[in-house]
Design the sequence.
């Protein structure tokens, strides 16, 4: 059984940028839609961005549209989340998830496998 491993989190000032990576092993990576979710302090987990198997369709939560960009490199079994113009309200643990049953999905139940998450903290 493979894994999803996130990296790239850290502490950044308001207006700064970070690029998160989600690396997969042990799976047919290109068969999965990949989603990024986040959970802030005392908040529910929420959808951030998703990308379909071949990368044809990319979709975002309204709160990050125009600031975040999701991409994938199937040859490297990796999905990226470029986060620009970061705000304090973007502070959260960011997790990636893989779903084989869906084309696009925004709910946690749409996804089958999850990473452990990486912390993103945006200071004001």
Sequence:
């Amino acid at each position: 059984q493979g894994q999803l491993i996130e990296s790239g989190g850290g502490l950044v000032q308001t207006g700064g940028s970070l690029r998160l990576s989600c690396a997969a092993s042990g799976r047919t990576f290109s068969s999965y839609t990949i989603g990024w979710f986040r959970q802030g302090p005392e908040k529910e987990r929420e959808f951030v961005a998703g990308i379909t198997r071949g990368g044809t369709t990319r979709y975002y939560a309204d709160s990050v549209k125009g600031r975040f960009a999701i991409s994938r490199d199937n040859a490297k079994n990796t999905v990226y989340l470029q986060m620009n113009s970061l705000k304090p309200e973007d502070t959260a643990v960011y997790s990636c998830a893989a779903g084989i049953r869906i084309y696009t999905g925004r709910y946690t139940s749409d996804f089958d496998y999850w990473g452990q998450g990486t912390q993103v903290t945006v200071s004001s």
Remarks:
- The chain has a mean pLDDT of 95.
